[in-house]
Amino acid sequence: MFPLKRVVAAEWLKLRHSHLWIVLLALPIVSVLMGCGNFYMNQGVLQNGWYSLWSQVGLFYGEFFFPTLIAICCAYLCRLEHSGKNWNMMMTAPVPVASIFWAKLLTAGMLTAFVQLVFALLYIIGGTMTGLSIFELPEELFGWLLRGWLAAVTISSFQLALSMRIRSFAVPVGIGLGATFLGLGMYVAKAGLFFPHSLLTIGMGVLSPESLPVQQQLTVVVVNLLYTAAFSAAAIYRLRTADVSA
Q1: Which side of the chain, N or C, has fewer Cβ within a 10 Å radius?
Q2: Of the segments 206-210, 221-225, 235-239, which one has the largest average pLDDT value?
Q3: Residue 246 domain-assigned?
Q4: How many domains would you assign to the chain?
């Protein structure tokens, strides 16, 4: 069987000289700058230290910038295949169809993990610069980041399924942006577990930075895995059965 790591290596090769890295760094920076600025100017009202800061930076990052960034990453990962006859070449290569999708999803997962780490570092730096003690960091921070990354992988599977089907770069990104607002509405309607983008809001605690009960944490993890499996299966099935549009 064709080694998956070779397909992943090919995906990374395509990213080496791309400008995607600028987006991966710029959006977390903008999120933290906006959130820290709002926190600093309103410390008379926002008096819960690191938790208040998280609610400010997380609102911009988790609700808007991060989901949009995921959509951009996934569209970019499929951009080359949509150029010329590259999909035809890919589908006739001695590479299992499932490996093509899994390689892109693994690459998206690694990119989003990198973004989460950058965001966490900027959050800590921003907090210390606004006068917060690094020794009082929220104990929930690791859980927020991990569950946020898990939701990011779920959203990535959804966006890849779209981007592999739609030749346009902008359309899947636009759909992802619309799904972000729909996810916010689902969260407000207490139906967040039924929509992938709402899982990011719940997992990262961006609108309610507090500890989740263990049972709810497990539920979030299980639902993410189910969504990822469903979107991945649908994308792989379509690659195997539908004609490539190139």
Answers
A1: N
A2: 221-225
A3: no
A4: 1
